[in-house]
Backbone:
């Protein structure tokens, strides 16, 4: 029995088995790996959450949002402000809620902007928030950032992993739901979608806000590992660009593509960025351009291509010495 | 009864009136044709009816209810559906999903997944595209893409269907097939308001015809009446008649 | 109060003229090529840094554009002719193209910025030129402010005349308006697109030279210039070249007033607030077309 057929018939089983392996790997990591490795994995998983939640909305609706940094930063600040008042696990959903509410507001106001203007607006929003919060902190409240009480890295790992599971499940179920179909239509042709009975504003704003909630929660969980935060650190535009690159690289059409992209890039970012900063960023730029140009469907787009090629090669190997029937026999 | 009525319908773009003080009505169950030279305001009128554009002044009523100020999705759910001059299918989905969207969201009641799927299948069968359900939409010919648009619009269970240049770009055979489809739709009880340039089609199946020029209505009546109307011949049909369509 | 405001406004006009020059290039690139060139600021940076580097070899900053201009023009030309043209060919829709072009431009931005950083490092370069004060109408101005204003204005007018009077200018405008028809009428649209992009890059580079005369420069200055250009362009209308110049002056005045009368630190958030409000109220800007 050949490989491709084996894979397709036992697909579900293989997938479940694979996921269980991942689960075991992540849960047991702190037992045998160094603290720094645990931290790397935590950061990687954070990127997965950002990339997947970005793709939930922007990947389907065709509105490129550069706002993830805004919602992520809000989550960080929520943690900074509430860390002494409430337990960690309560702050997480609050961070999500804060981002959700803010995203509702932003969405209502801006989602009627045509594609590129929306992108510019969300970009401007991030920088605006950074500057304003910085100004208010230094001038009005005489603060220069916040100290975050560190939390055990094991707990952070498990928590972010939990968030990954929630986010991925949400992405999966939204995509399969009525709202997911509506969003897909909006991405296909917004005017037609509106004319087929879809309340496009409500659909866009709702899903935008939901996706932002996960970003906020991720911010809350990431804060303790940063130890010190200020507006520039919390709202860094990098947290917008990286998830986008990961999602584009991995392929927004498929959920697993986004996850794979985030894993690869998150790992590279964490390990390379410190040492070879300039070269890393240079490489980042080159890869971004190459991916957009040659792999618009991302890595996930390669998979069907590879399946075809692989299947073809195997077929030819099997036929081996047999004669091909002639077309005009 | 008049299923759709418009009074003094006007639309300004800057200083220019694309549609100027047009009164019109569509009787239930009929096929009303809308013709006129390019730029006469036909698609604009459709855009005003479906609320793709806001009306500058005047009133449009569907089954007695004012449409002014409503949004396109609300109008769709009331029972008015349309196709588009430049085919606006959902390029990111296969044929079946395209029609499914209409079935799911086109009615004001909650539609279950099973019901929506059933209605989508029926709509596809009605237009003769059942065999292509799983095909990605970009692989279809233009004529078939237009059919998908029609199926999608039908899946929203409309009482009034606006067809915008359904036959543009079709071969004569395809035009004939499209004409059959349109009459078949009318026979199920759906009222049709159609913009068309292909004279043979419009004159062949319309019960009445309306003529626009420079945003104004210049003639209205049965196809036979309109064909002999001097103003119409002058500005429009003259060239067509010589072209021998 | 008046004596405080008038000099601010005048300096604002001087400053704004450079912003206008900056934005004109971006507007041209978007209007013709439909690319929102996020890399724009990097061309400014290149112009500024190269001007400084050349000045170390004894070349007068005022002459630098003669060398740098064609260089950056070529770079811009190449970018459009290869990258963006390739993207356009593969994009399934104009909206998809604009999105992809935006992302690709981000990529190019990082590439240019970090190549520059690897070459020149991240330090601040003291590139001041003509920094002495002159008195005019009882007010003090820095000489380079007046000079840069004159150059920016002259260039702005020149570009405007070029676009409105010359044959090539007409071809450019026709391509911006309707590329399909322009092509049918015999215009080599690919050439026009690449040329326009190159011209935009040249204007950015020259703006960089002008900026370098007034402030210290570094390889990381690109981004903030991109942002300013963006705001000006949206204010003046994406695609309207004269609108961009006027808007540039306006922004210059506003920034000087905010810095002088209120808080220098707040100029940036004020820009952004203006940008966001504008996008909501009138995304096509003051003089823009849809």
Residues:
């Amino acid at each position: 029995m050949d490989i491709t057929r084996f894979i397709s018939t036992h697909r579900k089983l293989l997938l479940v088995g694979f996921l269980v392996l991942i689960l075991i790997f992540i849960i047991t990591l702190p037992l045998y790996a160094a603290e720094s490795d645990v931290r790397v994995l935590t950061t990687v998983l954070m990127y997965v959450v950002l990339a997947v939640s970005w793709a939930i909305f922007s990947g389907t609706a065709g509105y490129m949002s550069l706002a993830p940094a805004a919602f992520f930063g809000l989550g960080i600040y929520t943690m900074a402000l509430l860390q002494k008042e409430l337990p960690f696990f309560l702050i997480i959903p609050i961070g999500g809620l804060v981002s959700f509410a803010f995203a509702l507001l932003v969405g209502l106001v801006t989602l009627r902007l045509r594609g590129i203007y929306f992108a510019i607006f969300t970009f401007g929003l991030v920088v605006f928030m950074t500057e304003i919060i910085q100004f208010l902190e230094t001038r009005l409240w005489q603060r220069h950032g916040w100290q975050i009480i560190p939390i055990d890295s094991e707990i952070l790992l498990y928590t972010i992993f939990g968030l990954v599971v929630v986010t991925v499940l949400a992405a999966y179920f939204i995509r399969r739901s009525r709202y997911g179909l509506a969003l897909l239509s909006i991405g296909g042709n917004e005017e037609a979608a509106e004319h087929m009975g879809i309340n496009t504003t409500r659909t866009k704003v709702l899903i935008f806000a939901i996706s932002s909630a996960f970003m906020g929660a991720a911010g809350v969980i990431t804060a303790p590992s940063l130890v010190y935060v200020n507006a520039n650190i919390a709202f860094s535009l990098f947290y917008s660009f990286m998830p986008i690159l990961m999602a584009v690289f991995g392929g927004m059409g498929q959920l697993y593509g986004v996850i794979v992209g985030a894993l690869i890039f998150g790992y590279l970012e964490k390990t390379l960025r410190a040492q070879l900063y300039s070269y890393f960023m240079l490489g980042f730029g080159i890869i971004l351009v190459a991916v957009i140009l040659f792999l618009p469907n991302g890595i996930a787009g390669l998979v069907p291509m590879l399946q075809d090629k692989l299947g073809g090669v195997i077929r030819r190997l099997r036929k081996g010495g047999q004669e091909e029937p002639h077309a005009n026999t | 009864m008049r299923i759709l009525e418009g009074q003094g319908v006007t639309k300004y773009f800057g200083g220019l009136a694309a549609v100027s003080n047009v009164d019109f009505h569509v009787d239930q169950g009929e096929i009303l044709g809308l013709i006129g030279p390019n730029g006469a305001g036909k698609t604009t009128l459709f855009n005003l009816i479906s609320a793709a554009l806001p009306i500058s002044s005047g009133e449009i009523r569907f089954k007695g209810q004012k449409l002014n100020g409503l949004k396109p999705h609300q109008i769709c759910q009331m029972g008015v559906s349309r196709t588009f001059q430049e085919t606006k299918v959902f390029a990111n989905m296969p044929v079946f999903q395209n029609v499914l969207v209409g079935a799911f969201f086109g009615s004001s009641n909650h539609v279950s997944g099973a019901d929506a799927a059933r209605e989508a299948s029926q709509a596809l069968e009605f237009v003769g595209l059942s065999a292509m359900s799983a095909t990605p939409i970009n692989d279809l010919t233009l004529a078939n893409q237009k059919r998908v648009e029609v199926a999608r619009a039908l899946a929203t269970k409309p009482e009034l269907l606006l067809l915008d240049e359904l036959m543009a770009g079709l071969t004569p055979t395809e035009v004939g097939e499209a004409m059959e489809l349109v009459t078949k739709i009318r026979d199920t009880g759906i009222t049709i308001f159609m913009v068309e340039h292909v004279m043979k089609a419009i004159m062949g199946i319309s019960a009445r015809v309306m003529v626009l020029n420079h945003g104004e209505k210049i003639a209205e009546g049965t196809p036979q009446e309109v064909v002999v109307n001097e103003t119409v011949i002058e500005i429009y049909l003259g060239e067509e008649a010589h072209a021998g369509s | 109060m008046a004596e405080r405001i008038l000099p601010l406004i005048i300096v604002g006009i001087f400053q704004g003229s450079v912003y206008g020059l900056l934005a004109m290039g971006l507007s041209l690139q978007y209007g013709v090529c439909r690319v929102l060139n996020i890399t724009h600021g990097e061309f400014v940076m290149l112009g500024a840094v190269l001007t400084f580097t050349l000045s170390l070899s004894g070349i007068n900053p005022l002459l630098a554009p003669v060398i740098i201009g064609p260089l950056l023009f070529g770079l811009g030309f190449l970018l459009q002719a290869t990258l963006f043209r390739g993207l356009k060919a593969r994009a399934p829709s104009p909206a998809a193209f604009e999105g992809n072009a935006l992302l690709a431009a981000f990529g190019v931005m990082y590439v240019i910025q970090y190549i520059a950083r690897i070459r020149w490092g991240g330090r601040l370069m003291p590139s001041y030129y003509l920094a002495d004060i002159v008195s005019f109408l009882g007010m003090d101005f820095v000489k380079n402010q007046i000079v840069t204003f004159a150059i920016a204005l002259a260039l702005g007018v020149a570009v405007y005349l070029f676009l409105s009077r010359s044959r090539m200018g007409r071809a450019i405008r026709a391509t911006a308006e309707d590329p399909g028809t322009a092509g049918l009428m015999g215009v080599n649209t690919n050439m026009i697109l690449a040329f326009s992009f190159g011209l935009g890059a040249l204007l950015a580079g020259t703006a960089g030279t002008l900026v370098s005369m007034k402030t210290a420069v570094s390889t990381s200055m690109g981004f903030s210039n991109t942002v300013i250009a963006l705001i000006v362009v949206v204010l003046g209308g994406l695609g309207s070249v004269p609108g961009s110049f006027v808007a540039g002056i306006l922004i210059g005045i506003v920034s000087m007033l905010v810095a002088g009368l209120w808080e220098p630190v707040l100029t940036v958030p004020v820009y952004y607030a203006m940008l966001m409000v504008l996008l909501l109220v009138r995304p096509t800007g003051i003089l823009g077309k849809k």
Chain C touches chain A at residues 36, 83, 86-87, 90-91, 95-96, 98-100, 102-104, 106-115, 117-118, 227, 230-231, 234, 263, 265-266, 268-269, 272-273, 275-276, 279-280, 283 (CB under 8 Å). Chain C has one domain: 20-222.
